[in-house]
Amino acid sequence: MSAFLFYLFATLTLGSALLVVLNRNAVSSAMSLFLAFIGMAGLFVLLEAYFLALQVMVYAGAVVVIFVFIVMLLDVDKLPRQRIDKLSKGAATIAFALMVTGVLWLFHKDQFTGPALPAEATGAVLKTYGRQLFTTYLLPMQVTGFLLLIAMIGVIVISKRTPAATAASGK
Asked: 55: left (phi > 0), else alpha (psi -120 to 50), else beta?
């Protein structure tokens, strides 16, 4: 049963993540992102990391609400479509090839077929998790917060309309 649930949640996560990238409608992409987060939370539940699953679900809702708000604020459907240049297509192709090569290399190494190691109880206790979060992982937490701040400022700058653009659109 556990293997079936793993494949179900993994398929849900990967399929939804693929739909996030391939959807042309921004709201549909946001809903697909929410489904991907649900799949990730299910995978965390299978790993018995209930606190992480709860965190993913809480932040999934918040991120999707913010994305939908930004889409509504920017009127993405009314913007002209931009063509992707050859440099961006080439960079995306190289990144995708590197990712596929890395995944295939991991599976080729047969590191996943060895005996299961006993799990440490470091993440099971919330106090230990919090201590690790604010000591060992303090720098990644700060960098993530800083990146989110930069993204929020970028959205505010992009959504700010100039008087000429407002007069041209008739608003």
From this structure: alpha
Q: Which pLDDT value is given to residue 170?
A: 57
Q: Report the topology of domain 1-78.
A: Four Helix Bundle (Hemerythrin (Met), subunit A) (1.20.120)
Tokens describing residue 4 = 């079936």
Q: For residue 163, what pLDDT is reported?
A: 58
Give the Cα separation of 136 and 38 in Å (integer).
27
Check residue 28 and give its pLDDT.
Answer: 87
Nearest to 9 by CA among 61, 51, 56: 56
What does the chain come to in residues?
A: 171
Residue with tokens 């993530």: 144
Q: Which residues of 91-122 are buried (b: 16+ CB within 10 A; e: fewer)?
A: eeeeeeeeeeeeeeeeeeeeeeeeeeeeeeee
The residues of the chain that CATH labels 1.20.120.1200 are: 1-78
pTM across the whole model = 0.55
pLDDT at position 123, please?
46
Tell me the CB-side half-sphere exposure of residue 118, using CA atoms within 13 A.
2
Residue 6 contacts residue 46 (beta carbons within 8 Å): yes
Residues 6+ apart with CB under 8 A from 85: none
